[in-house]
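Fig. S4 source data, part A: sequence.
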Amino acid sequence: MILDFFKILLLLVILSPEYCFSQDLTIRVNNNQKFSSNESISDMFNIKLSIDGDSRIATKPISSGNSRIFYFSDLTTSRAITLKKNRKNKSIFEERISSIALSNNQLLMLGNASIFVLELCDDNSSIRLVKQINNKDNFTFSRRLGENIFLSVFYDFHPLDAESKHVWAVFDLKSLEITRKKVMPDNDVIFSYFVNQLHSTYNDKIAHALSTNYKIFIYDSLFNKIDSIVSDEFKFDRQLLVENNLTRFNSKEQISRLKKFDDSLFTRMRKVYYCDDSTVYALIKVKSSNRLRMDKWGKTNNSWERTGSGDFTVWYEEGKAYNKDDISTASDFYQNVFDLNHVQGDTFELWYYPFIPTVNTESFNVNKDYYAPQNDCIVNKESYIGIKQISITDRTGL
């Protein structure tokens, strides 16, 4: 009798809305191709990318010499566009670029000291600087927000380096000025030393994820909270940080200690992807594990429900089978080296360097399947930028 009761209880839990979703999501490589330009390895680490409709533009964070190269593609043609250094635009060549955002023919670039607005001209074959203003709030993240650009910074600055650690702003592309700015709560900012992307935009709305509590809030372009996704799945015990003297960080050693605690004790949200009005993805770091989880949330009848989930490795595992239809590693989502942009639906795109063919093996070997193809490209002087499109899909449908 007692055994039957527990069987019924277990069945009710499994069939409850919290657990009624596909738990077998995987990642598929739709396309992986070379950009037409051949580049040197010293130049292309950490490519900055922005996508607007069919147009893509990318550039490297640091420029060398007297020209900055922009790589443009509109799905039918691709070209390298050169900006020559002059007295007016020299700061673009001197500052490190942390983020770029394309809107029609306007390109916003965030430097470590300046915000640059450039314009694509002559049928997207040339580019020129239109305006430069001071990046006094240290913005490092930019995405299109309606007809404007959303800017944010989320970092645990030393008090002498910045007044605020979490700031949002709207950059108006008509007036070429910041027209709205707000200091946001800096919950979880101590984890900004590690991989994260807790902001995402769709049309004129913003998604912001808390890292240590399973909460994703949706805001309008006026920064009013209009919706939320909430789960009680994991909670965060801040007392552990207090007890272990991990609330202020003045050295790399302290940050290393925090990372050890983080890896072993805390399940946290690392990234959020706001795809459309009814689709949000959350990338979650699992404690005491070298694994990640991707949750898919769908909205029907004004209610958000988890509709899918997938378990992934951080990177490829030795001896495991991989092919383009079932990559089963979330390294492209987890990494912070190359910008990953949402394209449409469940599809994302990144430009990376150097290009290597999609891993296709029955038993992965890091030297044979990863490093050897890279080395061959470099030795043969065929080091191309790679353009990869990936989709999150249900493995049961493969």
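Fig. S4 source data, part B ends here. The first strand starts at residue 25 and ends at 38.
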